[in-house]
## 1
Amino acid sequence: MKKRFNPIKDKSSEIINFLMASPDMPSDEALRFKLQLSIEEAVENVVRYAYDGGIGWLEAGTYLDHDSLLLTIELRDAGIPFNPLEQPEPDITAKAEDRDIGGLGIYLCKKLMDTISYRYEDGNNILTMTKKIENS
């Protein structure tokens, strides 16, 4: 299931709701909470930073492999090339006022999802997140 949103300005909630309403999503509430947090962080990054002023598109989709019970969430945009996985890990041991701004969102995604990958292909940023959803 996938859909293209264009333009994406002010559509974060709509994109997140679309992904969370996917029939591929598990019913387990604790797992859904983790997935939603990861989706929110990833979508917000694209909406805020991929395009100047949010004028651009985002294709968002889900796929569930019923054999392995592996849920894949993919975000694709043609914004500024940016690999969030290359950003330094935040120092979560430091006091909040001593930390650099940013970086916590992708850190959170890395902790909540099983895998996260990024590639730049044919002028597109492609962020793929996976989560095993057995027992949901």
## 2
Amino acid sequence: MATRPVFKPLSAFPFVEEIPVEFTWYPGFAKSQAQKSLQALHSAAKELGISSILEISSRSTDPLGISLSAFNLKVTPKNGPGMSVECAFQGSKVFQYGGPYHDLYKVSSIEAKKDPRIRNSGDLVAFNFLGETFPITPVTAFYDWLYMNALSQNPKISKELLKFEVFSDIAFNPQKSLNCQARAAALFVALDMCGEIEEALRDRKHFISLLTGPSIKQTNNNGGQLKFKL
């Protein structure tokens, strides 16, 4: 047995509910094994009254879920070529002893994820994307922001995403990872539900304030709005 979260959008802070689901796990690296585990996860979720679930990963049985994988979903800066969310995320990491490794923007998603420099450059201290620095707290903020920007640039896909109520990622293990594409998708839907998505993507300061809650004020050293121009 295993326990994994599924992610439900909420119309107010904290915007995403993580619901733990216990299910039968099918070990092995084959895609067929992952899809057996996925089917078991969704079946167990339905027994808890959770329906309308979309798996977001390369293991999804739904083409929409595959296209929404961070390995496949593209984010395109105004003054540069498009890249996968995964490449943008990995290539923007700044470590204690190196980075950002912007050359990873131009490789495949799997190459970016497995680049040895990501593991051998010391502690993660910040992100640098398009020449601007993004802090590592809140811990999932930069990944979520990248993913949601990619969704906003792909309106056909994001429109289909809004039809679902809950999201899963069978490859995500919260004991080993922090960032999750299914959670980022749920956050996008939640902010769309409450009318905050456009301002959140336009103004980084506002986005971080949404994640940290209405009682916490965010400040920055420059005294102005912090924005990325995609």
## 3
Amino acid sequence: MIHSTAIIDPAAELAEDVSIGAYSIIEAGVEIDSGTEIGPHVVIKGPTRIGRDNRIFQFASIGEQPQDLKYAGEPTRLQLGDRNTVREYVTLNRGTVDGGGVTTIGDDNLFMTSSHVAHDCTIGNHTIFANAVALAGHVHVDDHAILGGYTTVHQFTRIGAHCFSGFASAVDRDIPPYFTVAGNRARAIGINKEGLKRRGFDSAAIKALQKAFKLLVKSPISHKNAMQQVEEMAAEFDEVRQLFDFIESSERGWIR
């Protein structure tokens, strides 16, 4: 299961059925769980914990030190969950002491070619990062978010659940859950209606989210009045409640 040209540090911990391709390098402090496949020419540095049944393609760089000038060699970590797909030239960096010391990635995510996750990011489950998506440090991405190719995300930004960004979007503020945004700088253009349909969302909930979007983004009424109406809707729809709570807690401001 391990190619003869691969270099595995004796201090790395690999499950018995992990496969390692030609010329890959696995350094000390790396843990890889059962069923994970590492392609050729992959570099994984520790401390890094990789879960079960991941597939990491050639030329990926996993667990490299953060691109932060304040980093001084501290033993920060990268945590990668289960069943993730990491394509060619993807870079996943460890955390920094100031950011909590760990970059955390959940389960069932797809990182397409040349996407980048910087230090101290937190990524949920079932997300898709299209080609060349780049997250700066300390970004939080919730479940089922989809970032279109060449999307760039400012540090300390929150990406809400089930949202969608168009290609080459420049995201400098929070994306509320269920929103679709696009442009440089990104602007809110609607609810991610098609994505919600594919995931089985109730039609009444989708209509409620569309109404909430119009109140928050397109209505001439004040933001305070819009939020009051959205809060009333939130009593009936959990999805609207999630949207309301996200906006209420936004610190950077959110894309409109």
## 4
Amino acid sequence: MAPFILIPGLLCDQTLWSGQIAVLEKYSAVTIADITRQSTIHEMAAHVLEDAPAQFSLAGFSLGSQVALEMMNVAGHRVKRLALLSATHGGLLPAAEAAIRHAVEMIEQGRFDQYLEEAYPSYFAARSAGDTRLKQIFVSMAHAVGQQAGVRQMRALLAIRNPFVNLDRIDCPTLIIGGRDDRRTTPEAHRRLAGEIPGSKLEILDDSAHFTPIEQSGKVADLLRDWITR
């Protein structure tokens, strides 16, 4: 079976995928891509492709989904299977764009921790608001990635002005996963993306917002296992 490459999202690291790595590594080698040093989506995609094997399966979360779609545009023939989590067909929805612009301002003003405190509820379902474990994961990942890398990633997202081209040419098995309560990438955005990729399978998860890999860790792991074995 082809190796797996998992791409984290904005201010995320390998911790995001902890619940899925344990499942996927039973089938093949798993690599977590590092997209913290580049300044554009294209540079991130080129970096991941440079280190990738000739053939691989690919999953991207949020920012990582945008990198994955750019990889499909550049070298889709190398990708055996594709999973897109908390994804749009290209760029940020208006509310998310406004939030990210505000985030850049806060971080550049030295208010990183305040930003994280304010941002947490907007990324998670209401039932997770008081979950100290999830909040600690969210904050710890952000600090591990760091403020400078976070701002670079945010600016890379803000620079996406149009949908990705050639989505209708993606012909590998494609899984799209979203949270029903996601206000950053809404269920409607996921449905639109699924409608543009022929034969893709869409899963909208209850009791979850943007961070499906940690809010619904087991369910996402099961879906990814089925994605690689079906």
